[in-house]
Each structure stands twice: as C-alpha cells, then as structure tokens.
C-alpha cells in the first residue's frame, strides 16, 4: 500500500507507539489525524510536525463519539484509508486481586475501543472502495498468558482474534489488517492510570503495571525503542503483513503455548481411544 496522500487515523496518537508511527507515516506523505484523550498532549505534539496534522480529542470507550469522529474525518479529509486502533491502558496484579472496575476499565479501552474503531471507520472504508488498512495494537500478552496481567491479556487476546477474523473477511475489499504484538516497548503505558476516569474509581485506585525498563528483570523481552517498532508497523501496512512481531524472543513462549495445546489434544485422543 502506498501511504502518500492517504488519510491515516491513529488513536492514542499523542505519545508512544502511536506518535512514533505518525512520524514515520508523515515521512511517507500520509495525511495524519492524531486522536487522543489528552488535549494538551495533542497540542504539544502537533506543533512538532513539519507538515500539517489534524488533531481530535475522543474517548475510544464512547461508541457514539467514535462514530461522530469518523464522520467528521471523512467530511473534513474526503475519506479515510488507514485506521490504527492503538489507544490502550493496563493494570497489574493477580486476577484474584482485580476489582470489577479494573476489569471494566481495561476491557472498555483495550477491547471495546478497537471494536468501536472498526464499527465507526470500516463502513466508510468499504463504501469508498479505495482499499486501505486497519491496524491494532495488541501485545505479546495477546498471544500467550502473562502472569499479573489478566484483564490486559483478556482484552489483547480479543484484539488478536478481531484482527485475524477481519484479515479473512476483508480480502475482497482490498483492506489489509495488521496486529502489533510486542513484548516491552519504551512507552508510558506504565503510567496509564493518569487517564483512569472517576467512573472507574480514578487514578489512585489503579494497580500499576511493573516498570518497563531494562532494570525490571522479572519481565520478558528487550525494551525496544518506539521508533524501531513504528518502522515495523508502517512496513506491515505497506506490505500487508498480519502479525507484527518485534521481539524474536517471543517465538519460544508462543511455540510452547501451542505445544501445550497439542499435548492436551493427545491426552483426549488417547482417552477417547480407550472408551
């Protein structure tokens, strides 16, 4: 896919992977719309681009707001070609310690947010019949279980499933699909409680995830720079690659997950053969 003059919408676009991806897409000539929940952050980063960038404040949890956002962008820009469902939050700790509001917050942002992105933008992409690409930020935690990240895993497993289904369903529309599944990346997701709204109890009740730095020896994988990950994201768009896998060290845990599934297939096959 050629990105020049294509309209690209990025949620969570004021920081981290979203912002880094926006910079790479801008260098390719894309017309950018950065979407975030933080107006001040959007204003600050927009001023750093050398080409015009549209910004919109929107809460991905809000279905109606996302539908209105899509209509606004199509009306303003004449269409939409790339949608990067990237906004995300996380909480840390064992499932037994999770409160109901922890689950609600993570699932509302990390799972319902991408669902709303698809519901809002895909009909426009299909009607304009110009092809395009839909991306999702999932995680290594969407491919294998990560202890201490139960709600996050549940959401990201769902995001991977949505991407896999869409990749099949949208072939006839010439709309590609990619899902990003990294281990650790140098973003500020470890402080995502700053955006935890009062209806989930506010920032002070949010169980924080472990720091993402190299000094956190209990966490798997290298800490990658967002710019390196962003280059891979854009390459996946240009070449229609479904899985974006920045950490090769994730290969072993993913293989072991499927080995466990195969092992239990064998268990039940043996059990059923003896009945």
User: What distance lies between the first and last C-alpha atoms, to the nearest angstrom?
Assistant: 54 Å
SS elements, strand count:
9
The percent range for helix content is 40-55%
Globally, the shape reads: globular
Task: Calculate the mean pLDDT score and round it.
Answer: 93
Tell me the name of the CATH homologous superfamily: NAD(P)-binding Rossmann-like Domain
Strand order of the largest sheet: 3-2-1-4-5-6-9
The computed structural class is: alpha/beta
Largest sheet: 7 strands, parallel
Output the radius of gyration: 19 Å
CATH architecture: 3-Layer(aba) Sandwich
Strand/helix succession: EHEHEHEHHEHEEEHEH
CATH topology: Rossmann fold
Give the CATH class.
Alpha Beta
Stretches with pLDDT under 50, minimum 5 residues: 213-219
Strand content: 5-15%
The number of domains is: 1
- Total number of helical segments? 8
SSE inventory with pairings:
Layout: E1 7-11, H1 16-27, E2 31-36, H2 39-46, E3 53-57, H3 63-77, E4 82-85, H4 100-110, H5 112-128, E5 132-137, H6 150-169, E6 175-180, E7 184-185, E8 223-224, H7 226-239, E9 243-244, H8 251-273
Helix pairs in contact: 1-7, 3-5, 4-6
Give a description of the structure.
The chain has a single domain, classed as Rossmann fold, CATH 3.40.50.720. It contains eight helices and nine strands. The N and C termini lie far apart (54 Å). Helix 1 (16-27) crosses helix 7. The strands form two sheets. It has a seven-stranded parallel sheet, with helices on both faces. Strands 7-8 form a two-stranded parallel ribbon. The protein is α/β, with parallel strands linked by helices and 275 residues long. Residues 213-219 have low confidence and may be disordered.
């Amino acid at each position: 896919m050629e990105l020049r003059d294509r309209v690209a919408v990025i949620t969570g676009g004021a920081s981290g992977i979203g912002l880094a991806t926006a910079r790479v897409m801008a260098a390719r000539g894309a017309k950018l719309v950065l979407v975030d929940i933080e107006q001040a952050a959007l204003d600050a980063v927009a001023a750093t681009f050398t080409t015009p960038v549209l910004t919109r404040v929107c809460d991905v949890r809000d279905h109606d707001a996302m539908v209105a956002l899509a209509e606004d962008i199509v009306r303003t820009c004449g269409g939409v070609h790339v949608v990067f469902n990237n906004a995300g939050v996380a909480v840390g700790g064992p499932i037994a310690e999770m409160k109901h509001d922890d689950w609600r917050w993570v699932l509302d942002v990390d799972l319902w947010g991408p669902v709303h992105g698809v519901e809002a933008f895909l009909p426009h992409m299909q009607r304009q019949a110009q092809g395009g690409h839909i991306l999702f930020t999932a995680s290594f935690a969407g491919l294998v279980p990560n202890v201490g990240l139960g709600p996050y895993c549940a959401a990201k497993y769902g995001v991977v499933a949505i991407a896999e289904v869409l990749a099949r369903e949208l072939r006839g529309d010439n709309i590609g699909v990619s899902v990003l599944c990294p281990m650790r990346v140098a973003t500020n997701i470890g402080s995502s409680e700053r955006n935890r709204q009062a209806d989930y109890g506010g920032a002070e009740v949010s169980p924080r995830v472990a720091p993402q730095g190299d000094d956190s020896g209990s966490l798997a994988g290298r800490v990658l720079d967002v710019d390196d990950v962003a280059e891979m994201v854009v390459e996946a768009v240009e070449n229609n690659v479904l899985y974006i896998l920045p950490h090769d060290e994730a290969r072993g845990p993913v293989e072991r997950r499927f080995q466990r599934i195969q092992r239990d297939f064998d268990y039940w096959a043996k059990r059923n053969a003896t009945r």
